[in-house]
């Protein structure tokens, strides 16, 4: 196995030609502190690469092969990962607000301690996707699957979760407040660790078959305008 070569670019701004030279290396690289904002990666294979404290805001990574990559403390606001392959990738302590993951492969990917506010996961493939300590406020996650997953400190407040699959999922210190839950499925889900505030009458039916606490049940009845005596 080829050793990963570390390239420290802290304080440097890389232009498109410079990025193309880096990507041409072929073998996995660990980039540190690189400012790559606004650049296009193209359909290259970066399997195994590592990005530490890099700025990839507004970068275009459309169809880029990013399997087994590691992203740590990166800035990736408005980056476009559309149709990229992030299988087994890990994103940690990064700002991924408003990024695009449309039709992205996220099989067995992990996102921890990161911001995903406003991110778009429309038509993403999310089998075994792990989210931990993630801010996903107002994110678009239609038909995303979290089946059988454990969700820890994930804030879905105001998120679009239409058709999402939460069957048998476990929620720990999460929020679904004001989320859009049309056709979402929660059979067998443990929602005792979720904030269900703002649930409307039409949404309550989606929780059929889920486990909630007595306190949540009382709160839901109040949200629906029913008096609990």
Structure description:
The protein is mainly beta. It folds into 2 domains: about 1-105, Pectate Lyase C-like, CATH 2.160.20.80; about 140-229, Pectate Lyase C-like (3 Solenoid). The protein is built from 3 helices and 11 strands. The chain has helices at about 15-25, 200-205, 215-225; strands at about 5-10, 30, 50, 70, 90, 110-115, 130-135, 150-155, 170, 175, 195. Strand 1 (about 5-10), helix 1 (about 15-25) and strand 2 form a beta-alpha-beta unit. The longest helix is centred in the last third of the chain and has 10 residues, at about 215-225.
Strand-pairing-aware structural class: mainly beta
Query: Per CATH, which architecture of the largest domain?
Result: 3 Solenoid
The largest β sheet comes out as: 9 strands, parallel
User: Approximately how much helix is present in the residues?
Assistant: under 10%
Mean pLDDT: 92
Features:
single chain, 229 residues, mainly beta, Pectate Lyase C-like, 2 domains, 9-stranded parallel β-sheet, two-stranded parallel ribbon, 11 strands, 18% strand, elongated
List the helices and strands and how they pair.
Blueprint: E1 5-8, H1 16-23, E2 29-32, E3 50-52, E4 70-72, E5 90-92, E6 110-115, E7 130-135, E8 150-155, E9 170-172, E10 174-175, E11 194-195, H2 201-204, H3 214-223
Parallel strand pairs: 1-2, 2-3, 3-4, 4-5, 5-6, 6-7, 7-8, 8-9, 10-11
Outline:
The protein has 229 residues and is mainly β. Helix content is 10%, strand content 18%.
């Amino acid at each position: 196995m080829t050793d990963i070569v570390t390239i420290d670019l802290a304080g440097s701004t890389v232009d498109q030609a410079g990025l193309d030279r880096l990507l041409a290396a072929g073998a996995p690289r660990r980039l540190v502190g690189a400012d790559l904002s606004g650049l296009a990666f193209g359909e290259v294979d970066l399997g195994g690469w590592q990005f530490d404290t890099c700025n990839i805001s507004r970068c275009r990574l459309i169809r880029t092969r990013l399997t087994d990559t590691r992203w740590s403390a990166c800035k990736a606001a408005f980056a476009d990962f559309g149709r990229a392959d992030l299988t087994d990738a890990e994103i940690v302590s990064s700002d991924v607000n408003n990024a695009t993951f449309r039709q992205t492969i996220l099989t067995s990917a992990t996102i921890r301690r990161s911001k995903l506010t406003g991110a778009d996961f429309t038509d993403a493939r999310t089998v075994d996707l792990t989210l931990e300590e993630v801010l996903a406020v107002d994110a678009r996650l239609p038909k995303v699957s979290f089946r059988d997953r454990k969700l820890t400190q994930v804030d879905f407040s105001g998120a679009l979760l239409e058709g999402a699959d939460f069957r048998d999922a476990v929620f720990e210190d999460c929020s679904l407040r004001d989320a859009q839950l049309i056709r979402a499925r929660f059979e067998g889900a443990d929602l005792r660790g979720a904030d269900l505030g703002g649930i409307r009458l039409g949404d309550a039916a989606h929780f059929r078959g889920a486990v909630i606490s007595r306190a949540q049940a009382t709160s839901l009845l109040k949200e629906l305008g029913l008096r609990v005596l």
